Amino acid sequence: MQTEAAVSSRDQNRALGLSTIAFTACFAVWTIFSIIGVAIKDELGLNDTQFGLLVATPILTGSITRLFLGVWTEKYGGRLVFAGQMILTALATWALTLADSYIMYLIAALGIGLAGGSFIIGVAYVSRWYDAGHQGTALGIFGAGNVGAAVTKFIAPFVLVAYGWHGVAYVWAFGLAIVGVLFFLLAKDDPELVERRRTGAKAPSLAEQFAPLRNLQVWRFSLYYFFVFGAFVALALWMPHYLIDVYGVDVKTAGMAAASFSLSASLFRAYGGHLSDKFGARQVMYWTFGFSLVLLFMLSYPPTAYIVQGKDGPIAFSTMMGFWPFIVVLFALGFFMSLGKAAVFKHIPVYYPRHVGAVGGLVGMIGGLGGFVLPIVFGAALDLTGIYTSCFAILFGLVAIALTWMHLSIRAMERAAHGPALDDLPSLPEMQDIHVPGKTVMPRVLQDWRPEDAAFWNEKGQAVARRNLWISIPALLLAFSVWMVWSVVVARLPAIGFDFTPGQLFWLAALPGLSGASLRIFYSFMVPVFGGRLWTTLSTASLLLPAMGIGYAVQNPETPYLIFLVLALLCGFGGGNFASSMANIGYFFPKAEKGNALALNAGLGNLGVSVMQFLVPIVITAGVFGALGGQPQTMSDGGQLWMQNAGFVWVPFILAATVAAWLGMNDIADARASFADQAVIFSRTHNWLMCILYTGTFGSFIGYSAGFPLLTKLAFPEVNALNYVFLGPLVGALSRAATGWISDRFGGGRVTFWTFAAMIAATFGVIVFLGVGSFVGFFACFMALFFLTGVGNASTFQMIPVIMGREVPHLMPELGVEERKRQIAMESGAITAFTSAIAAYGAFFIPKAYGTSIAMTGSAVGALWGFLIFYAICVGITWVVYTRPGGLLHDIERGRGAMGAAAQPAQ
Prior knowledge:
The protein is mainly alpha-helical. 76% of the residues lie in helices and 2% in strands. The strands form 3 sheets. A two-stranded antiparallel ribbon has the order 1-2. It has a two-stranded parallel sheet with strand order 3-6. A two-stranded antiparallel ribbon has the order 4-5. α18 runs antiparallel to α27 (651-664). The longest helix is centred in the first third of the chain and has 39 residues, at 148-186. The protein starts with 8 loop residues before the first helix and ends with a helix.
């Protein structure tokens, strides 16, 4: 970063002007598929999901390359890196015309994606020419090069009509190559690079440049940019297709209309930079997110017909946004997104002036990934729901999350600066007169909690901890029951008149796993923030929504598929509960009993899957709730089912568990920690390695539980699968609860290694018996898999506190004994919860892998081979990192590290 006195205004203008022109040309190429993709879609007969992947592929390369292009710019200078990047992109654009298949188009699109990396090159280059007071404006002007998307949409349709899409590719490739050569000839090296060369100073190392990436703040900026830039790119790519399908306009009109959005989302970026310099980037971000929420709500509301029963009869009316109102609202959305783009990058050179390339590269990469991920999500959502406005509904949710996180972070910073003063204020201003600071004490909060103190534990602690455990277990059991109830309901839907395809049924079976896993990421950090008692109460009560919703939805075969999709996602509430439950119980017990307590909580909680798969087939055969439960459904064979009981049966138990949690559980004052405190786990390598291993164990358990009923029914239609499938989750849950002692005795790492080795053999057995059509062999091998997943679930969780007991003293040697204990407990709890969150995605990917494999090959064998390879990877990780001689856990598990462990209280 330079002051204005360091360089002349002429050199500043030269750098800014050339960079903006180059970025405009790159952005025009980067979004080329928004126009020529429509022609390629028709040429290859692509569906919406394939089209979304095609137009998003360049965004993937452009996003990922931003990270290292920013670093290279810091090291070699923008003049060389920018020119080379443009010439390489031009060659890739020309090569696109040689593609002759969908795969080849995707490969060529990866090369074109280099154009997207130009942004971070320009940011790192331009920011070095300006001081902090003018960087916002300068970077805003540079960022207005996003207008290249509008250039493509204005001009490319006419070139397309005249010369075909090949003509567009030739013209855009030639133009970008010319700009690249001119930039190299006319641009100057930035002042910092010149000074470094003059003094012989070394360029910053990779470690120095990437150091700020461990800060949570950087990732929060990345989420902002995921919306303001990633969603902009996604909509720029998606809108021509959307407008053609929804409003029936031709490609030229669609291109011009979509260009108006690209213009507003680009040109006003310069104004956003000026506003950020004048009013502050934070204020501009509030404007961006606030107005975007309103505008996206308007855009996401689908055309709807209403019938209101009036006093003189039905009153019918409908709502639908016309073409021109849609364009106006979209233009306004683009305006506020452009302000937000400038505001995000105003933050970076201010907070990280010497790491603009690395930090800006990461933020730009995450933002660019939004342009890759979101079009695919838009296509999948459209295929699944059939609702065109679903793309805007997805963005509405994204903005709500970003705004909430930003506001909470700002409040946390305010509290850190003025905590005591804020704590003395009442929550509501009107209570000022009656508020007495410190008078209100939170109920059932354990201010003094010392589980490692033997006297305290025997006298008081043990009874309290066990009471919390035995209240937590049934609540978690119910959570698993509701989470996985869809696996049984889905298998019965066709029999009671629901005309869903196998692909739709597998989506319904998979979505609870997807939402449950995603919720676990957030639930992982909720207990230290809100307290275990309150969070367990709220999370258990939330199970009423999917339970009652299922009960009503299955009674009418005309219930739209969209309603079932929503209910499947709501079932994920049950999946999220596991992460918070395990984190909560871990705080109550001493290390000597923590493994057994977690095994009981998790193992008996997992039992909810088999309880559900055993109970639901029974209760749906009788009118358990009488007239209150509704009428039975008639099956295709003439029989009757009360399918609603699959949801209603859990309601009274959920109510009882909710009341028990509120009245009987406790919070621990010392367990309180902010999200920022817990976020240290994201910099721990072993957190990510344990995510992989636990995905292999728990991800397999929950994924097999979700997909086993439907897979068995499809593979062996002559067998009444629902009479047997509950045995798998039962075996897995009981083995987890009963085998924790094995890991305590022989070491979690060693048990994990041999468990994965045995899972490879069992998976191979499933493949063999599925091929020969033997149900007995297939079923026996699956029972072995379920048993092994339970053993592995217990062993991997046993590893986590041992690993952190070894790592924290080395990573944070400045901590005292008590501080070290708290840090190990906090990190172990957070990693335990977070790994469970990542592993829970198995509940989505395994059923979805079955469905994809069956759709592509007619058999689930392809998916099973993929699982086997993954288990082999897990074996390798466990051996290389943990159990081999010299591995992290080898000495401990061999007993040779006992004295060293005893010498460290953290162990």
